[in-house]
Amino acid sequence: MNTTPSVLFVCVHNAGRSQMAQGFLTQLAGDAIEVRSAGTAPADTINPAAVLAMAELGIDITNQQPKILTPDTVQTSTVVITMGCGDACPYFPGVDYRDWKLDDPAGQGLDAVRPIRDEIRKRVEELITELLPGR
Question: Would you place residue 93 in the very low, low, confident or very high pLDDT band (cuts 50, 70, 90)?
Fold first, then answer.
């Protein structure tokens, strides 16, 4: 049985908040936590301001692509964290759902995206502490 927790970050376009969260969790937890992201209406590309904001911290998210949310991805996750997609996320018993209320970086400049990025990092660090106690 796989005991590695799996976290799914979901936002509408899978181009900003969820991609930044995936980047932080991947960098900070390594392979101790499986991390994925998806969107209910994925954009064509990742938000350039999100890419720049993450690059400032040495995290490259340019290799990520927005992906469509599928029921299977939700069902196979330990924790699903939504970021502004509301009820569009399918519900499965046994999955831990959380909603992170964060401003949407879509159409925002780098100065507006930095505080969103920093709040995401704080929440990801708290999530790691919860999912990997003693680490």
Answer: confident
Distances, alpha carbon 79 to alpha carbons 5, 9, 20, in Å:
8, 9, 17
Q: Is 11 a known active-site residue? A: yes
**Which residue of the set 33, 35, 89, 131 is catalytic?**
89
Tell me: the pLDDT tens digits for 45-57? 999 999 999 999 9
Of 85, 113, 116, 124, the catalytic one is 85
pLDDT given for residue 89 in this prediction: 67
Q: By the 8 A CB rule, do 35 and 22 touch?
A: yes
3-state secondary structure 90-121: CCCCCCEEEECCCCCCCCCCHHHHHHHHHHHH
- Is pTM, for the whole model, over 0.85? yes
Say if CB 71 and CB 91 are below 8 A apart. no
Annotated catalytic residue within 11, 25, 113, 127:
11
